[in-house]
Amino acid sequence: MNPPRPASWIAFLLPLILPLILLGAVGLAAAILTLRPDSILTWVGYGVAGLVLLWLGATTFWPARADRACPECGQESLERMDPKTTMGLLCTLCTYQDPQASGWFLAEEEETDLEDLVRQQRQALRDSRR
Q1: Are 34 and 42 in contact (CB under 8 A)?
Q2: What angle do CA 16, 17, 19 make, to 5 degrees?
Q3: 91: closest CA among 75, 102, 112, 104?
C-alpha cells in the first residue's frame, strides 16, 4: 500500500483543523473583548458576532432555492438535461439549452437520494480519467 500524497493529507486534515482554527479565533476575540470591554473593539466584535448569527439564522431558516426562470423566455420552466447528472439545463417552453450550467439546486429539490447521484458522477469522472 502506497502512502497518500501530501496534497491528499492536506485535504484530509483541513476539515479537521479548520474548525479548531475558527474556534481559536473566536476565543481570541472573546479574550480581547474581556480585557478591554469599554473600547470600540467591543462594539465591532459584537457587531461581527451579531452579523454571523444573523447569517446563520437566515441560511438555516431560509435556504437557497432553485431558480427555474429561463434566461431567454423568462418562464419558470427550467429542468435538468439529464436526470443522472447535476450539470446541464434546458427550457421546456423554448429552445434554451446550457450543458455547462449547474442544475445542483434542481437536483437537490427533485432527488431524494442525492448522495447516490453524486457518487455516480464521481465514479463516471474517475472512469473517464483512466
Answers
A1: no
A2: 85
A3: 75
Helix (H/G/I), strand (E/B), else coil: 102:
strand
- 46 CB contacts (<8 Å, ≥6 apart)? 33
Cα 66 off chain centre by: 13
Question: Whole-structure pTM over 0.90, yes or no?
Answer: no
pLDDT at 111 over 70: no
Distance CA 65, CA 32 (A): 39
In degrees and rounded to multiples of 5, residue 84 shows phi and psi of -95, 5
Nearest alpha carbon to residue 123 among 41, 115, 4, 66? 115
**What is the distance between the terminal CA atoms of the chain, rounded to a whole angstrom?**
20
Instruction: Give the DSSP per-residue string, 76-90.
Output: B-EEES-TT-SEEEE
35-63 pLDDT per residue, tens: 766 777 777 788 888 899 898 888 888 87
Q: 92-117: b or e for each residue (b if 16 or more CB lie within 10 Å)?
A: eeeebeeeebebeebbeeeeeeeeeb
